[in-house]
UniProtKB/TrEMBL annotation, chain A:
Protein name: Molybdopterin-dependent oxidoreductase
Aldehyde oxidase/xanthine dehydrogenase a/b hammerhead domain span: 20-135
Keyword Oxidoreductase attached: yes
The keyword Oxidoreductase appears for this protein: yes
Pfam families, sorted: Ald_Xan_dh_C (PF01315), MoCoBD_1 (PF02738), MoCoBD_2 (PF20256)
Annotated GO MF terms: iron ion binding; oxidoreductase activity
Region span, Disordered: 611-631
Record keywords, A-Z: Molybdenum, Oxidoreductase
UniProt cross-references to PANTHER family, sorted A to Z: ALDEHYDE OXIDASE 1-RELATED, XANTHINE DEHYDROGENASE
InterPro entries: Ald_Oxase/Xan_DH_a/b, Ald_Oxase/Xan_DH_a/b_sf, Ald_Oxase/xanthine_DH-like, AldOxase/xan_DH_MoCoBD1, AldOxase/xan_DH_MoCoBD2, AldOxase/xan_DH_Mopterin-bd_sf
UniProtKB/TrEMBL annotation, chain B:
Signal peptide: none
Domain FAD-binding PCMH-type residues, every copy: 1-177
SMART domains reported in the protein's UniProt record: CO_deh_flav_C (SM01092)
Species classification: Bacteria, Bacillati, Actinomycetota, Actinomycetes, Geodermatophilales
Gene3D superfamilies: 3.30.465.10, CO dehydrogenase flavoprotein, C-terminal domain, Uridine Diphospho-n-acetylenolpyruvylglucosamine Reductase, domain 2
Identification of the protein by name: Xanthine dehydrogenase family protein subunit M
Pfam short name (any one): FAD_binding_5
InterPro entries: CO_DH_flav_C (IPR005107), CO_DH_flav_C_dom_sf (IPR036683), Diverse_Substr_Oxidored (IPR051312), FAD-bd_PCMH (IPR016166), FAD-bd_PCMH-like_sf (IPR036318), FAD-bd_PCMH_sub1 (IPR016167), FAD-bd_PCMH_sub2 (IPR016169), Mopterin_DH_FAD-bd (IPR002346)
Keywords from the UniProt entry: FAD, Flavoprotein, Oxidoreductase
GO MF annotations in UniProt: FAD binding; oxidoreductase activity
Record has Oxidoreductase as a keyword: yes
Length: 806, 293
């Protein structure tokens, strides 16, 4: 059967269009629009003492200048705290344009609108803002020390204290045969999509309606925010996410100041206005993630089984908390990974710093969580002289323990109950794929070439597909076209293909007939967004349910026409037929025509549905409880998240003269339940691994003590090129989720999660020194190797003793 | 990230270019491949009043190779030099170094002479000009002149050329007899500006003994310098020479700076390592040259 496409490696149908330049990204829209540019704070913390716009006024082409003083009503209030939480006791957000105080370099202070972006920047350059500088807080340790405060009224810089525990950790630690404690750090990186953020707004003064295009991951909620902030009725605002050139999390935050200010100006000026973020703006005005300090104490027995775990996380949330404490909650709750942790306590202090806000970046707190847990496993193995894989194996949740309740509360407010999984299966597959047992042979072989070789692994469990819901709409047209829409947006993941595969399979139509629209509030107004590896799980299932609804209705109508029982009908290749009775069939497109009783025959096909053609006059044309049209709308709202899992291994080679670090092998075993399209899943894993390697070895946000970002360009922010990303070997395991109709789990973020942990482990294995801060660069590794304070691992000492390592 | 307003001139001859440069004065800048200048403009780190685009000036795009050396015209792209076999035979450092300049897309536009005129101490070709003891030819309204590399580089992104001038070519002298070269660098990502680069020339005597060793580094120091490392290995039979000792000597001669990608100490380490490695390679080439004689 040709239409069963679910599970097939169908080529991404959107690629041809995107690759040849026919994509429609934000900046492709509105060539004649006025352009906005922003004057942004050059200081990390300062009081604004004056804004002098005089110099800009005679720039030809200047249209308008806005400062905080020009904002009225809800626009003059702080931006929303999108995800409130009872433990976020001191939430703070900025204003669309800074009011009195700026708290990070890049905060918008003045908006300039002009005939084009060049002119807007000319004018912006001439606006003089004067400041009184205030003390600057950079880094979690400085924030916690609180010698200066980011917000006057939060003197200890602590925005939230998040705390979860599954038992009494202190007695459990005291009773543990062994304990160990350590502190480690992980640095910031950022989403860095190729396309930055961007907004285009058009006000129709006659219609009194607003159309906004935004490069966003959440168009429905942007719409609601714009309506609320600009005092518009929701029905007069439409928001469309056009092709989005990557998001990776940064575009889930909303409303960004620009998403409000650009429409505000468009309405005020009665003209189209556009703003497309440039790269420097993206570095200093969008969002970052990942910086944490982690203090870990673990209790364990002589076999390496964990008895208790106590973790304190200092989490850097940047200058404001518009996205609440989602990232640290995810760290806190995903830290336990695939392991049985009898007693677990986690305390997070989420602290303010004078830096760009911290909101989810692919992985969203999980790479940090994985780093904490997996490095703990490495430490236990090192202490006991055990194989790192064996220690992990002894702690894994077993396949017969599902559903497994960790007794924690997840980021969606729901319990952390793992729905399904086979973690020993993952580990076995990884050991084979990565050739774990021949590490010593590889090490000797590399040593003969003058290289230090090390291997590391990391496992993770990832809560994916959180609610509250997504919806799908499927409609069959009289032409046979099948229109599919979901309010969830796309950022390049291949939704057009995956969703079309689901509909083609569910409905029995050729995939060529299926057209998918995402993130357009004109087509679907209820949605949450694309983040947290949720698109396939949430919209995929909603769309499947919608398609099933259409199928049911189609069979009902066709059964009438064919005088058959709906149960005897099947749909294949767009033809409804009585099973086993050749010739007794009706095309689905005809069913679509018949589903809509007509008075007017606007085309040839429509004639079949007009009032003198249809026969049965014993019933109303549209039966009670029915609706015209062959379409169905449905929603999927899960009881809780579904938990995907995986295991990665990295092999690194280090040059002991230059301390260059080369990832020579990277192995991934991945379980995201039933797979809609393995080619897309592998692509997601590859991209994730690239970002994992990036976070481990290349990328960081180099803030100096004054809060200036020293590497705010692609020249100095070292996003790896293809030449730095290793080849990836992938093996799949499929443990279906019992929670949703399609049995799927999310796959979007998985690839990035274990990178830092696995690579840290591999480097430590290679050099025999403890790695406690990631990412690590050659210059830092050189310092570590020379430092008298750096700790030699017990494994290295043992190897030296037995002569395995020279 | 949009440049401030500027005037644009695209002269059709060198004289015309010089005339515009004279008329516009200090506010005018030559535009060659644009690979360094345009980013500076876009970030508004430079705002020249006029750009004088020399891409339409005829006669500046030739690589001339003679027994004395290689003359590279102002419009020769890095990529053309990289693939010029005749030039590589006379001075192998040209291809070896240009292979390390950025990525193909940038090498296709950026010019070698522009890179020298830009005087970036992180550029490979400034260092190669120094190492080969090269010079540039400068056209001015009062006629052409030659500037030796030693007199050219004044500071980072700063040359001694002032007033209306177009660098029309760079001259890289030929590799001396019984000599070999090597070039290596370490960058955080392939094609990036080097964290540290090293170019070396080893010259032997007729008996395969080390006669001269010179090295120049990339991203080390404010201007290109040439270091004579001969003392560390002078007179050694080539197969016994202690190149590590030459590396050690080099470490003591350089004065690198630290930045977010590498500490000064790390750069110094790399100077030592790269010197040792490139010298061994260059020496082997020199030995082969002596054998051929
Ligand atoms: C991403 C990226 C990576 C790069 N990596 C490297 C690298 O690894 N190594 C490296 O060496 N370079 C690198 N570059 C720079 C590149 O090599 C440039 O091409 C080169 O530095 C300048 O040459 P150009 O022809 O582009 O000069 P332009 O950008 O046009 O000009 C540069 C400067 O030189 C002046 N100038 C140019 N030509 C002349 C002339 N004939 N007479 C007088 N003045 C002149 C200009 O006025 C300007 O001030 C990189 C560039 C980019 C964008």
């Amino acid at each position: 059967m040709t239409t069963k496409l679910f599970g097939e490696p169908v080529r991404r149908r959107e690629d041809a269009r995107l690759i040849v330049g026919r994509g429609r990204y934000l900046d492709d829209i509105g060539h004649t629009a006025l352009a906005a540019a922003f004057v942004r704070s050059p200081h990390a913390h300062a009081r604004i003492t004056g804004i002098d716009v005089d110099g800009a006024l005679d720039v030809e082409g200047l249209v308008a200048i806005y400062t905080y003083e020009d904002l009225t009503g809800p626009m003059a209030e702080p931006l929303p705290v999108l995800i409130p939480h009872p433990q976020l006791t001191e939430p703070r957000t900025g204003y669309p344009l800074a009011r009195e105080v700026v708290r990070h370099v890049g905060e918008p202070v003045v908006m300039v609108v002009a005939t084009d972006r060049y002119v807007a920047e000319d004018a912006a350059e001439r606006i003089v803002v004067t400041y009184d500088e205030l003390p600057v807080v950079v880094g979690v340790d400085a924030a916690y020390e609180a010698r200066a405060a980011v917000h006057d009224d939060v003197p200890d810089n602590v925005a939230a204290r998040h705390h979860q525990e599954t038992g009494d950790v202190e007695p459990a630690l005291a009773a543990s045969p062994r304990t160990l404690s350590f502190t480690q750090y992980i640095e910031r990186s950022a989403s860095m999509p190729m396309e930055g953020r961007g907004v285009h707004a058009r006000w129709d003064a006659d219609d009194r309606s607003l159309r906004v295009y935004s490069s966003t991951q959440a168009s429905t909620s942007v719409r609601a925010a714009i309506a609320a902030k600009l005092d518009l009725s929701l029905d007069t605002v439409e928001v469309i996410a056009p092709d989005v050139g990557g998001g990776f999390g940064v575009k889930i935050v909303h409303p960004w100041p620009e998403e409000l200010l650009v429409p505000m100006a468009a309405i005020a000026l009665g003209q189209e206005v556009k703003w497309a973020e440039d790269r420097r703006e993206h570095f200093i005005s969008s969002a970052h993630e990942r910086q944490q300090r982690q203090d870990v104490t673990v209790g364990f027995d002589d076999e390496g089984r964990v008895t208790a775990l106590d973790v304190h996380v200092l989490h850097d949330n940047g200058a404001y908390t518009p996205y609440g404490i989602i990232v640290p909650i995810i760290t806190a709750t995903q830290l336990v990974g695939p392991y049985v942790i009898p007693v677990y306590r986690v305390r997070v202090d989420s602290v303010y710093t004078n830096t760009v806000i911290v909101t989810p970046y692919r992985g969203a707190g999980r790479p940090q969580a994985c780093y904490a847990m997996e490095r703990t496993m490495d430490r236990i193995a090192d202490e006991l002289g055990l194989d790192r894989a064996v220690v992990r194996e002894r702690n894994l949740i077993q396949p017969d323990q599902f559903p497994y309740d960790h007794h924690l509360t997840f980021q969606d407010g729901r319990p952390v109950i793992y729905d399904s999984g086979d973690y020993p299966g993952l580990l076995d597959k990884l050991r084979t794929l990565a050739d774990w047992s021949s590490a010593d042979v590889l090490r000797d072989e590399a040593a003969a070439r003058g290289k230090l070789l090390g291997i590391g692994m990391a496992m993770y469990v990832e809560g994916t597909g959180p609610g509250p819901y997504e919806g799908g709409h499927v409609q069959v047209l009289g032409s046979g076209k099948v229109l599919v829409s979901t309010g969830l947006t796309s950022q390049g993941q291949g939704h057009e293909t995956a969703f079309a595969q689901i509909v083609a399979s569910e409905l029995g139509v050729p995939i060529e007939d299926v057209e998918v629209t995402t993130g357009d509030t004109r087509r679907f107004a209820y949605a949450v967004g694309t983040f947290a590896s949720r698109a396939a799980v949430m919209s995929g299932n909603a769309i499947a349910l919608a398609a099933r609804g259409v199928r049911e209705k189609a069979l009902r109508i066709a059964a009438d026409v064919l005088e058959a029982d709906p149960g005897d009908l099947e749909i294949d290749e767009g033809l409804v037929q009585v099973r086993g009775t050749p010739g007794a069939s009706i095309p689905l497109r005809t069913v679509a025509v018949l589903s809509n009783p007509l008075r007017y025959a606007f085309d040839e096909a429509a004639k079949q549905a007009t009032q003198f053609t249809t026969h049965d006059d014993s019933k109303p044309p549209v039966a009670e409880g029915d609706a015209p049209g062959l379409e169905h709308r449905d929603y999927y709202s899960p009881i809780r998240s579904t938990f995907a899992s995986g295991a990665h291994a990295a092999v690194v080679e280090i040059d002991p003269e230059t301390w260059e670090i080369d990832v020579v092998r990277y192995a991934v075993v991945h379980d995201c339940g039933n797979v809609v399209n393995p080619m897309i899943v592998e692509g997601q894993v590859h991209g994730g691994v690239a970002q994992g390697v990036a976070g481990a070895l290349y990328e960081r946000m180099a803030y100096d003590a004054d809060g200036q970002l020293q590497n705010a360009s692609y020249m100095d922010f070292l996003m790896p090129y293809a030449s730095e990303v290793p080849d990836v070997d992938i093996d799949h395991q499929q443990t279906p989720s019992p929670l949703n109709p399609l049995g799927i789990k999310g796959a979007g973020e998985a690839g990035v999660i274990p990178g830092t942990a696995a690579i840290a482990s591999a480097i430590e294995d290679a050099v025999g020194r403890r790695i406690t801060s990631m990412p690590i660069s050659p210059t830092e590794l050189y310092d570590l190797m020379r430092s008298e304070d750096s700790e030699t691992t017990a494994t290295a000492a043992r190897r030296a003793g037995t002569g395995v390592m020279a | 990230m949009k440049p401030a307003p500027f005037r644009y001139a695209d002269p059709g001859t060198l004289d015309e270019a010089l005339a515009v440069l004279s008329a516009e004065g200090a506010g005018a800048k030559v535009l060659a491949g644009g690979q360094s200048l345009l980013p500076l403009l876009s970030m508004r780190l430079a705002a020249p009043a006029t750009l004088v685009d020399i891409n339409g000036v005829p006669g500046l795009d030739a690589v001339e190779v003679t027994g004395d050396g290689v003359t590279v015209g102002a419009l020769v792209r890095h990529n053309a030099l990289l693939h010029d076999d005749a030039a590589a035979r006379v001075q192998p450092l040209l291809a070896r170094a240009t292979a390390n300049v950025a990525h193909p897309a940038i090498r296709n536009r950026g010019t070698t002479v522009g890179s020298i005129a830009h005087a970036d101490p992180s550029g490979e070709m400034t260092s190669v000009l120094a190492l080969t003891d090269g010079s540039v030819t400068v056209a001015t309204p009062s006629g052409p002149s030659t500037v030796e590399w030693r007199d050219l580089f004044v500071g980072p992104l700063e040359t001694s050329i002032s007033g209306p001038a177009v660098v029309t070519s760079a001259f890289f002298p030929a590799l001396p007899p019984r000599s070999g070269t090597a070039f290596a660098e370490i960058a955080r990502r392939k094609g990036d500006y080097a964290v540290c680069g090293a170019g070396v020339v080893v010259t032997l005597d007729e008996d395969q003994r080390v006669a001269a060793v010179r090295a120049s580094y990339v991203s080390v120091g404010l201007t290109p310098e040439v270091h004579d490392l001969t003392d560390a290995v002078i007179g050694s039979p080539v197969e016994k020479a202690d190149w590590t000792a030459a590396g050690e000597l080099a470490r003591t001669l350089v004065d690198p700076d630290g930045d977010i990608h590498a500490s000064a100490d790390y750069r110094r380490l790399l100077v030592g390592v790269l010197t040792g490695r490139t010298l061994a390679e260059a020496a082997a080439e020199a030995a082969a040259a002596v054998t051929r004689e």
